[in-house]
Amino acid sequence: MPGMSVRATLGIDIGGTNIKGGVLDEQDRLLARRAIETRAEEGFEASFARIVALIEELIAEAGIARSGITAVGVGVPGPMDHAAGVVRHAPNLDGWVDIPLRTLLSERTGLTCVIENDANAAAFGEFVGGTQRTATDMVMLTLGTGIGGGVILGGRLVRGRFDNAGEVGHMIVAIGGRACPCGQRGCLERYASANAIRERLIEAVRAGETSVLAPQVYGSEPLTTEDVCRAAQEGDQAAERVWEEACRMLAAACVNLQHVLNPGLIVLAGGLINAGEALLGPVRRAFTELTWKICEDYPRIEPAVLGGDAGLLGAAALAREALAQRGA
Amino acid sequence: MPGMSVRATLGIDIGGTNIKGGVLDEQDRLLARRAIETRAEEGFEASFARIVALIEELIAEAGIARSGITAVGVGVPGPMDHAAGVVRHAPNLDGWVDIPLRTLLSERTGLTCVIENDANAAAFGEFVGGTQRTATDMVMLTLGTGIGGGVILGGRLVRGRFDNAGEVGHMIVAIGGRACPCGQRGCLERYASANAIRERLIEAVRAGETSVLAPQVYGSEPLTTEDVCRAAQEGDQAAERVWEEACRMLAAACVNLQHVLNPGLIVLAGGLINAGEALLGPVRRAFTELTWKICEDYPRIEPAVLGGDAGLLGAAALAREALAQRGA
Fold first, then answer.
1. Using the beta-carbon criterion (under 8 Å), do A162 and B261 form an inter-chain contact?
2. Which of A150, A261, B44, B319 is the most buried (most CB within 10 A)?
């Protein structure tokens, strides 16, 4: 009978806009994949019911016997207690405060569940599924609306004492610098996230700098980070300055990661890497300029290759790993 | 017969001035301890012969049968290839370039040898032997002439891809800041090491700032870091500014370590911690000011407790660990 002997793991990646799910076999092949809207404004109970339905649909679609599902790994955006399986607070999901998600989901589905920070899950997904399979140490920086990330050392995800490791976007790169909603000043995220790049260009124009983007800053057509990147490439001075500074701050963060962890690989992920060489080139050049010269212990700085599926893949892989550690 | 059934491990800590050695039993008790001069200027062969003699003296002094010595762990100041057992370059030891120390020492003594970076060994020593035994994750910053350190996660020393992890003194805390002999600018070490604090006070006075320390800057009596600390405590403005900035840079580095690794414990070690509360107070206050407010995932910031024996203790503990991993 089909699927009788197949063992598979589910990965769920909860985002503010979409919830993605996938079924992976033991060779990390996607047997099924689905995405639904989060509808975060409907509150926890509604989102939870949609996640449960998604899990059932995925199992049906993959054609796997329920007994063949080893576990469900769930990536959640926000601080959590990994061991207790409790989501402390997901800022982009209405009503997600102190939710014992692991227990709730296990009870409702009858499946073993594991929850992870979504950025950590994405980093682990890129680690196990990306072309970086040969590395044992890797740090990922996910450059999106904000900057998240994950640290993998010796093939294992680093969670830290409070399950908050990998918050690389809040490394301080400019003491006393730009204010961040987190309460700090000078966070990497305030210079090198897609949002920050857009905001800084707008600030520059409003402060009187000339730029080909001024009509968009003052007009009705929205200004995007891609616009800033393109203008920088075309020699617009304001855009160039903002873009170069973002790359320089990223490079400084990479230097600090080099010295603290000495990883062989730093991966840049998230929407910003669509800029391709326009991002990687300046980051690598600034890294070479900023880093020390006494020892060539430099990490490779590479773009992520998995894209949007890294989160669900990593959540599934981490769930499988958790099972293996329990000896299941 | 005495010592027949006792098993012990040797730890050797090679410094630019002294070489310290100790014999530890399986409960980490020091059975013997000795320190000799390094005489680095005499070159590698001479230093090596002195280390071999030190090992023999320690074994004799501890009264342990040679067959009871499980291994020798050696901490060396400088980059190395841990797996190959080769010291690449120890800048403070004349002629120590590409030395296959592990093999040489094993051949000469007939004992199993393991080499480690000295700062990493000291961090591991503080981890296993300090009062922090309950922590599983710890980062140590050793504030001496320069700033070194070590990272322990899940009870294991992090070495990194090139055995250079824990170089926390070269985290960039001020992009484009003070030049460092390593080739970078704005390294933590250029603001918060004992040397940097002294140098910065001298620079301030030479630049025209008034200070009670001016006579020492211009006179024959040497200015020490302790003098700067004392003057800062007594309200000297130049000294206060230099001291506070050192503490602030240290705090910023601690914030970055918090976000990348989320350790439960950050330990400050080295000569500078003799300042006691004059150091810890401002570092902790600046940390509280600089760090985020959205999640109280703060590490404890504590002084080291082992002092000068941390290096030999850690070298011995790491050698024992290496044996255990080989199943010996």
1. no
2. A150
Shortest distance between the Cα of B211 and any Cα of chain A, in A, equals 26
Per DSSP, B271 falls in state: G
Q: What residues of A are in contact with residue B135 (Cβ under 8 Å)?
A: 161
Query: Which positions in chain A touch B291 (Cβ < 8 Å)?
Result: 183-184
Q: What is the pLDDT of residues A74-116, one digit of tens each?
A: 999 988 999 999 999 888 899 999 999 999 999 999 999 999 9
DSSP letter string, A130-165? STTTT-S-EEEEEESSSEEEEEEETTEE---TTS-T
**Residues spanned by the domain of A67:** 8-117+309-325
Give me the CATH number covering residue A265.
3.30.420.40
Q: Are residues B217 and B291 in the same domain?
A: yes
Cα first-last separation, chain A: 25
CA-nearest residue to B293 within chain A is: A183
CA A74 – CA B47 distance, rounded (Å): 57
| pLDDT tens digits, one per residue of B44-87 | 999 999 999 999 999 999 999 999 999 999 999 988 999 999 99
For residues A194 and A155, membership in a common domain is answered with yes
Hey, what are B260's tokens? 């990348």
B195 lies in the same domain as B101: no
- The amino acid sitting at A181 is P
Structure tokens at A184: 């700090």
Burial of A170 (0-12, 13-18, 19+ CB in 10 A): buried
- Cα A238 to Cα A226: distance, rounded to the nearest angstrom: 14
Q: Max alpha carbon distance in chain A (Å)?
A: 71
Co-location of A179 and A295 in the same domain: yes
pTM score of the predicted model? 0.95
Q: Are residues A209 and A155 in contact, defined by beta-carbon separation less than 8 angstroms?
A: no
User: What pLDDT shows up at residue A132?
Assistant: 60
Question: Is A2 inside any structural domain?
Answer: no
Alpha-carbon gap, residue A13 to A117, rounded angstroms: 10
Q: Is residue B234 in a domain?
A: yes
Beta carbons within 8 Å of B14's beta carbon, 6+ residues apart: B38, B47, B51, B74, B75, B76, B77, B90, B93, B118
Q: What phi and psi values does residue A138 have, to the nearest 5 degrees? A: -155, 140
Does A151 lie in the same domain as A250?
A: yes
- Residue in the block written with tokens 């894209």: A307
CA gap B175, A279 in Å, rounded:
19
Partner residue opposite A261 with nearest CB, options B160, B180, B265? B160
Ordered alpha helix ranges (H), chain A: 44-62, 101-109, 118-129, 189-192, 194-206, 214-218, 225-233, 237-261, 277-290, 310-325
B222-253 tens-digit pLDDT: 999 999 999 999 999 999 999 999 999 999 99
Residue B132 pLDDT > 70 = no
Q: pLDDT for A240-256, tens place per residue?
A: 999 999 999 999 999 99
Angstrom distance (rounded) from CA A96 to CA A98: 7
Task: Decide if B1 is inside a domain.
Answer: no
Given this model, what pLDDT does residue B5 score? Answer: 67
Residues contacting residue A155 through CB under 8 Å, at least 6 positions apart: A127, A136
Show Cβ contacts of residue A165 under 8 Å, excluding neighbours closer than 6 positions: A120, A150, A151, A158, A159, B260, B261, B262
Q: Residue B139: its chain A contacts at CB < 8 A?
A: 260
